[in-house]
Each structure stands twice: as structure tokens, then as C-alpha cells.
Amino acid sequence: MKLYEAFAEEIAQSIRAGVLKRGDRLPSVRQASTSRAISPSTVFEAYYLLEARGLIRARERSGYYVTAGARAQLPEPGISARPDGGSTAIEVSELVFDILESTRMRDVVPFGSAFPSPLLYPLPRLARSMASSVQAMDPWSTVDDLTPGNASLRRQIALRYLADGMPVHTDEIVITNGALEALNLCLHAVARPGDAVIIESPAFYGALQALEGFGVRAIQVATHPREGIDLAELAAALERHAPKACWLMTNFQNPTGSLMPDEKKQAVVALLAAHGVPLIEDDVYGELYFGSMRPLPAKAYDKQGLVMHCSSFSKSLAPGYRVGWAVPGRFTRDVARLKLTRTLSASAPAQAALADYLAKGGYDKHLRQLRHALSMQQEAMLQAIERHFPAGTRATRPDGGYFIWVELPGNADTIAIHRQALSLGISVAPGPMFSAQRRFGNCLRLNYGHPWDARAEAAMATLGRLASAAILA
């Protein structure tokens, strides 16, 4: 963090802990500058940041005062709906399409969106990379790079794996049209229609739709909103069903935001390897961590080539460029052939632009700014939930990504809340769209990936009223 951000966070922690109470006056800019040996401009920036977060407020000719009280953190949800252990045919696409259509409207508050604000990304800088790289593009590269993809881009991706302590050869990387294509190619490489595949519960709706479209049955395994999939239930499912694959999000899972601890990732990889079951790992949010280090993927513990690691630049750098990749281990040849026969290649100009951007540096600086913005927006949304939602509400506090999983008390119908909210210009993602059996009817996924403003605050107040009314109904 920058100096002013660290100073602001120190004050914010004191407010949350109750050391600084509502109505307390902060030291003047001069006092803080002298006592902390920092410049007045640094103090001003810190106070402006705290004011933007709603924690303090300036009073004319009087100074800055604390406006927020000590935060008694919302309790986090646990495993609220355990699957029955059977395999399930999936029919979720109509529900998902119906809900997703509402998130594309610009005049709707996008709490139900699957994407963060495009304003958080260095799109002008990427445009310059696009212009310069296309002008310098070797005409033969449009043929040479068809599959597995642009060699320079694959090298840059391999360098990022190496920085995380995972040596990956460029020949092991297959560039795809976003992570979703990578995941689907991996699924098709190891399963056939009628097979069974283990997924989380709740699960990313894109995984549910992929299984539905391929005619694959889902084995849902309970997933804890903080630590990920239940190991005991995973072991039981492997014994009972002999699945062809397991599809998991180990880092900042969508929708819960769960981060699987390293020891659990190791245990999952070892358990699946003992049964010879490939792991399709969706790691699109791994770069959006709020801590000091990127959490390693399960791929880091793969000794048999059974982990098929998939990611993309869509969430971390370049939304709309649709450039992802797979590192499919022992299945690399199968995935590359499937890619070649289906879509040939991802966009050559987009690949070249990203390779140019990564080679020139600036990605890590952008990521630091993006993570900081997302962490501040998460704090604002959690505070709004505490202010406006009914007593008994539970909410996750993810260590990265941009989703919060909210569990409402009682028998609240979040599909009904979704429809009511949409009529008022607010989108949300109701829990049943993340389940093959339409479970999690009292849960919501909320997106904090957009800058917080008065419109967002008012929308949260409206959602709180709708949730309270649903509980009383």
C-alpha cells in the first residue's frame, strides 16, 4: 500500500475496533503530519480516502470527525444446504439466461452482474499496445499461432507461473477464447455425455450450464463459504460414483468467495490422484487477492499431470478481449486438438496486444490498484449490508475476488426479491441459479466490483427493505 493508504487503513482499523468512536475528532492535518512524520498532503489523502469510504466527515472550520461506529462484523454463513449425494441431471440455463439479461442494462445497479466495472482496467494503455503490436505483426503469425496460441503471450504467462514457483513450459499452455472455453475444452477432453462430474454446491452457474449442454450429470458436493469443498463428502462421492472429473474453483470461488487453504488444496489433489480423477481448476480470480501473496492454485501440488489449470485476463486485466488459457497437464495434446477442430484460435490482435502489454511491464502495478479498489468497495458493501439488511443476515468476507454471498434469515425467496429489485432498477443474483437442484433459495450473490457511490448506497437500502419484507411475508 502507499503511505496514505496505510495510514488510512490504520485509522479504519481503530474505528472498527472501537478505539475511535462515532463523533470523535481526528488529529488536525498539522498534528497528524508532525506526530507521524509524514507530509500534510499524505494526511489529506488519507482523510479524503476515509471520507470517501464513509468513515469520517469534514466539518467546516472544525476538522474531521468519525461518522461510523465500531463494526460488529456480520456472522458468516456455513454450509446451509447439503446435497443428497446423488447424481443430478441439470436444467438451469433458462433461469440463468433470464437473470443475466437483466445485468446488461446500463441503467440498472449491477449487484447481480458477473463482471466488475470496466473503468477499473487500463483500457487506453491496452489500446496503445493493440495498435503498436498489430502494426508490427508478422503476417505468418496468423497461421503459426493458430493453436496453441501466440508464442510471446504463452511465454509471458509461463513467466508468471514461474514467479509463483510453478515451472510451466510454453508448450503446455493452450490459448483459448476466455477461461470458459478453456474449461469446456478440458471437460470435453476427459468426459463424455452421460458421465458424472463432481462440482461444488453452490457452484458457478457457467459450470452448471457447461455440464447441462454436454449432457453430463452433476454430483454436487457441499462447499463451505470460507474454506471450499467438504473433503469428507468429496471422498464419499469419489467412492460412490467413480466420476470422470472434478470441476472446482479453489481461489475466491464464485459465488461464495471461498479460498481453499493450501493444505486442503494438497489434500484434494492427492485424493483425486488416488482415484485417477482429473481436476478441472477454474482460477480466474486468483490475481484478485487482498493479502500480501497470490494464493497458489491446486496445480502447484500436481505431481501426476491430472490438474487442468484454467485462467484468463478477463477479470484481472482485459474484459472483452476474451483471452484465456489452459495448462491441461497430461491432457495438453487432447485439449489442443479440440481447440484446433472447434475454434482454431483466439483473436490474434488481442493476443498480440496482451503480450506487448505484459512485456512492457505495468501489469503488477495495475493489479495493486485493482485489488485496493475492490477491497475498499467490499468494505463499503459490507457496511451497507450491516446498516440496511434485517437482523440475522449472514455474509461472507472474502479475501479476494468481487463477490459476497449473503444468507437471509428465514424462508426469504430471493428469486422473488430479484424480480422486485429489477422492477426498481437493481439487479441481484439469487441463490438458486448456483444449484443444479435450485437450492439456496434464501441466498444472494452480490457484486462489489463497481465504484461505490450514493446510487449504490440507496440501492442497498432498497434491497434491505425488500429482504425484510420477504422475511415477514
TrEMBL record:
* Superkingdom of this protein's organism: Bacteria
Q: What is this protein called?
A: PLP-dependent aminotransferase family protein
Alphabetically sorted, this entry's keywords are: Aminotransferase, DNA-binding, Pyridoxal phosphate, Transcription, Transcription regulation, Transferase
Instruction: List the GO molecular function terms.
Output: transaminase activity
The protein's matches in Pfam families, at most eight in alphabetical order, are given as: Aminotran_1_2, GntR
Q: Which residues form the HTH gntR-type domain?
A: 1-69
Which InterPro entries does the record cross-reference, listed alphabetically? Aminotransferase_I/II_large, HTH_trans_reg/aminotransferase, PyrdxlP-dep_Trfase, PyrdxlP-dep_Trfase_major, PyrdxlP-dep_Trfase_small, Tscrpt_reg_HTH_GntR, WH-like_DNA-bd_sf, WH_DNA-bd_sf
SUPFAM superfamilies membership: PLP-dependent transferases (SSF53383), Winged helix' DNA-binding domain (SSF46785)
- What is stated as this protein's family in its record? In the C-terminal section; belongs to the class-I pyridoxal-phosphate-dependent aminotransferase family.
- Database matches in PROSITE patterns: HTH_GNTR
